């Protein structure tokens, strides 16, 4: 009967599945079979470390040894587990019915792994999506006491901070070096709760009233039909907006200047932009603008460098910040304040302090230092910290308060609102990066992603069930350990409800012109080129013409040069040009600055002297900068390990270049179409040409100077130092780097 049943089964199978090559359990002699592997785990994988073998010491990109137990990067312990802590023996193979059969629904490990992966992304920030951040500490000088009683400014008081830098327009994966404003947001975890100073690297903003924010951002973001261009203002909708809303002209000229393309987050100023109100221990109020002044000075990329980096190293600023901190060059800023009397009109020297399109020149109100910020630790996990950090202009502490600036008022609504959808519920302040370092007793309960297990029965007050807890703190401000946050008791302007603005908001050009007049000739030339490039990318003639009209109100020379570049008529200014005087503090040039965390490219080849190379490297390193050896191939050259090869190096990565050889073309250089073999490797020649064109310092030792002629670099020009002793190179170079670039190398076209 068994044989009969088997035959019946075979017949049935043939009927039902005539094309099926192989019915399980029914041998078929006519269909090919595939040999199955004998080892289900696969034998082709390279050997992986075993749990009891230890793990090789990790290496960092800056060559700094990574210390600590590698097992710390695991969450807990050494064994892979499911999310519920059950140990897993195989995470590479799904549970299937036979080796070639379907996957079983029962495979919980597979389902859990995919479910979690499928939900790894959260909405990116609607603006400032692309950023990088670091931990650090802020130390008060005690000098703010006369204007502000916030404990964070007390002398010697140290407060933990987290700072996130960002671009505004681009998506999370966009390039760092685009022309844009940069965010500079600082979270102070003070003893009296979190204070967020959510600023930018430009002291003014595009609009005066927050109700226009969605409009200006819609105009700056990619066009809604094609979703291009990414992370740019060089397109029609942006220029359409700023030429129609001319209050944006002041912010726009800052963007068109070198401030729009910073060399590094470490080399940017930061500004709170709005005016805030501070209260001192006697209850007196003052109006205040916050400034971050970088220890390393304010420096920028050239436009060509910025564009090249967009391709060669889109993560340039993120890498720079991380590498500098890792290599011990901890970025520093001084926090300063401009202080203005809290007068009823909230004006200072004719400048409306509630108008965020205006700044107060430092010559009229000096920036007075009140504390120091040092960033000394990189994030451990980008998503958990940089992505999930939630800043808010409403996060204020006793002593610091908002003003009626309509831009700030709108921000106080917007940040909470956006975080609700970005972080998926109302409990984002419980995330580790947002958690205050002060005790929290908030009566906020439940909701999505609640992680606290609240005790007590009465989350309301007053109550008689939880011993009356929590209690109101006192409005008496004398004891920081017990006082509450109290809004400054200022009189609010009264009037009819209106949708209108003060008359002072109509001045859109006096400070735009002041900015232009404050720049040196080379900085002005960059502004002209930036406008010409950006408007040249617009296709709508009317928009270019309207923006030229706006420029005519700023400066006739500026307008004429941009018009010439666009091939358009120079319009006449509709109104007389506004009165304006230069503010020297607005120029980036003319001072010297400390040199730290700079990248020094050192070209080495077969003709380099190993002793020279060692002396050079050691001097650069000892002074807190990073030497990067560039050789014809990886491995060892001139007795040292090469970090970049001629194939991987590009000039934009280096702040200065040292040539220790003039290497001949390597075997990996394709033959020249002319049939003539160049004397020097053409990739080295390109390095030298670009570094020269970007006004960066060049030094040569040994045979290095022989590489200059191929790049048409003369010897007797500023910041080209030839035939130095190795020991003399770094002292000379660091002196040159203190001014960042040698602009004097080139005659400037624009006066
Ligand atoms: Fe923001 N801004 N902003 N902004 N802003 C955001 O909040 C907004 C403005 C700034 O690294 C958003 O959490 C409105 C001025 C920084 O996480 C959002 C207005 C300044 C960051 C928002 C402004 C800034 C943001 C998007 C006009 C300089 C990044 C994601 C009234 C003083 C913070 C988020 C970070 C982020 C709204 C204007 C700085 C949508 C409505 C002026 C540095 O809430």
From TrEMBL:
Ranges of biased composition (kind: Basic and acidic residues): 7-17
GO molecular function terms listed in the Swiss-Prot or TrEMBL record: catalase activity; heme binding; metal ion binding
Residues joined by cross-link 3'-histidyl-3-tyrosine (His-Tyr): 392-415
GO biological process: one example: hydrogen peroxide catabolic process
PROSITE patterns cross-referenced by the UniProt entry: CATALASE_1, CATALASE_2, CATALASE_3
Region named Disordered: 1-74
Domain Catalase core: 81-469
Active-site positions on this chain: 128, 200
Enzyme Commission (EC) number: 1.11.1.6
The reaction(s) this protein catalyses: 2 H2O2 = O2 + 2 H2O
Chain positions recorded as heme binding sites: 125, 164, 213, 411, 415, 422
Record family assignment: Belongs to the catalase family. HPII subfamily.
Function: Decomposes hydrogen peroxide into water and oxygen; serves to protect cells from the toxic effects of hydrogen peroxide.
Identification of the protein by name: Catalase
Organism annotation: Nocardioides zeae
